[in-house]
Amino acid sequence: MSAPFTILEQPIDPSAVICRGCLAESGEMKNIYEWGLAEDYFRITAVVETLRKPGLSEMLCSNCEQTLISFKQFRKQCQDSDHHLKSCLKKKNKRKNGKNELICELRDKKLVIKVQAPETEEKILLPCPFHCEDTFAKKNDLYGHLKKVHNVSEDFAVELQYYCAVANCVYNVNSGSQKCFSERSNRRSSFCAH
Q: Which regions span the lipid bilayer (predicted)?
């Protein structure tokens, strides 16, 4: 009994039966269209092909097929890792944006404390700007400490500026608008309509 064969109308072009990946001329080959490899091959290699072209090899050797499968797995792994890292960063930023933040700016005769406090019920402790570990619940207590311990002058001032925690609000510390509130409210809606 003999193996089935097809009579070809034209002889096979040698360039049509070489591997598209490594140009190998022998070994086990698979047709990328018949074996469902074409989509991955064109996406991963970025080879642009809109139509099949007669005479252009459609074959991929077993080594290149394994490389293609490895690249596909690596691509998927990278996408999964990217998604995970971005999710972690988003959670981290959400936690960061959810905490009260203070920025101290010490000028000639003035201490400006910028408070961005999304947690309106949380107690704010005002830090000493001279790197001592003391914190104060009231502006007057901080001022008394600065006079007594750090010998600031009588005309030294402490100013508190309160900012909205919503990033795109004009009352956000990073908005560039220089708009702030002079007092803290336990109800965010009394200042901003967020």
A: none
* 19 is annotated as contributing to ligand binding: yes
Q: Which domain range does residue 47 map to?
A: 14-95
| Dist CA 38 CA 31 (whole Å) | 9
Quote the distance between the C-alpha of residue 102 and its chain's center. Answer: 25
* Predicted model pTM: 0.46
104 annotated as ligand-binding: no
Has residue 5 been placed in a domain?
A: no
Last residue of a domain, one of 72, 95, 118: 95
Reduced 3-state DSSP string for 178-192: CCCECCCCCCHHHCC
Higher pLDDT residue, 100 or 6? 100
Q: Average pLDDT, whole number, for the chain? A: 81
Specify whether 103 is located in the same domain as 186: yes
